[in-house]
Design goal:
There is one protein chain. By secondary structure, the protein is an alpha+beta fold. The chain has six helices and five strands, in the order ααββββααβαα. A five-stranded mixed sheet has the order 1-2-5-3-4. A hairpin with a 2-residue loop joins strand 3 and strand 4. Helix 4 runs parallel beside helix 5.
Length: about 170
Amino acid sequence: MSDTQSETQNQPRTGTLADLRDMASSAGVAVTPSETPLREPKRDALGRSYATGRRKNAIARVWIKPGRGEISVNGKKVGQYFARPVLRMLITQPFLVADRYNQFDVFCTVTGGGLSGQAGAMRHGISRALTYYEPNLRGILKVAGFLTRDSRVVERKKYGRAKARRSFQFSKR
């Protein structure tokens, strides 16, 4: 390879975006910008974002809006509804990861399942509602695994068994 060829390869190409579009239009190829457009925030007339979260048999309908960090579940304070601190920690995880702790008020109605499933459903719903309110938080919450629905459910009981897998007690005599 000669010196002139290596120099031309190392030099940056000079061309404007308009030139590239002109070339593409003459070739019949559509040019799309490399940057994906940002998602628009989804908010209702009251400035709230709504999402549904699911875990096991629990379904949580979650509304978030800017506020002082108050969380209400089925008309009760979060500390009154979820007495165990582990469940309250589970609910606040999306806010901590997104660095939005005590910046949003949460109103939630939860049905089905037990307390653990309901807390997981709330975490899923809060995470989704946060991404609807601020779409740029999607990457952070996705990496943390909060936007993925936990699809594990209780295995069904089989006939000839005491539970899903447990056999009846065996008696030799």
